[in-house]
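hiii, so i know i said id send this last week but things got crazy w the move. better late than never?? heres the sequnce for the chain we talked about at the cafe, plus the structure i predicted for it. fair warning i was half asleep when i ran it
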Amino acid sequence: MMDKLTPLSRMLVDRMAGGHDWAELGPVAFRDYLTANRQPPTGEDNIVARDADADGVPVRIYRPAERTDPLPVLLFMHGGGFVSGTVNNYDRLCHRIARKADCAVVSVEYRLAPEHPYPAAVEDAIAALGWVAREGGKHDIDTSRIAIGGDSAGGTLSIVAALNARDSNGPAIRHMMLIYPGLDLESDTESKREFGQGGYMLDAAFSAMCVGAYTPDPARRTEPNASPLRADSVAGLPSATIIVPECDPLRDDILAFSARLEAAGVPVDTKVYPGVFHGFVSTFGILPEADDALDRATAGLKAALAPAA
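okay and structure toks below
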């Protein structure tokens, strides 16, 4: 098969893969590797951060250092296949989002599998959203202007939390910032077949490892809280900005979700980036497409969180 990645994307994918077989080494080894290879923020965004407790869920609150007034907020869920990733791993990205969108960011340290399988992460996402809406004012957050978002597994959790808020008369959410979210743990799509065989960051064996750790009971993998593409309805969800890599096994599910939102009358801005891979946004400052995607995502977020006219 012809390599569909750009030359720079190919170099980055090969470097990040590092020759490891993560499916064989397991989820905890993968988590430890990511933790050891964290990219810290450089300080150029001039963001202050502090940790807090959101009803038992650890969170980190970021805000531009010069702002002392109540700010709108993005509740951010990190990626990592439900088995890895930490608030620390996503410091750099959260600093940049807070600066570009001129908002507060509350990054959630949700529980990870296999120690805490589904639905622990879902419960933590919903709890953190409720805490922000209820207690955010004490942390200089304007709780009338809440968005939710994340990348990969964090995008999944963001959609699930928004669906639950809609169905339970929960906190009002203005916008979803979705960066290559997972939508269906059980789907069989052309993009999964084309890009899941290795060489594109998110291969089928690694995905199976993550899915097995997160949902050890296969019967639960089609529940909407695990696979939100299977929700009965997406009507009434917040507007969304959706970032899609062309060479991502999740691409077709993401585009199907975008189409469902549009058909339900939900305002959605979806952009497919040719020649890039699952995880590419974290390479901002290196990959031009990552810079463009982050600009687009944060512009949509900033516009959605603007004060009502």
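btw The first strand starts at residue 47 and ends at 54. thought thatd interest u
miss u guys!!
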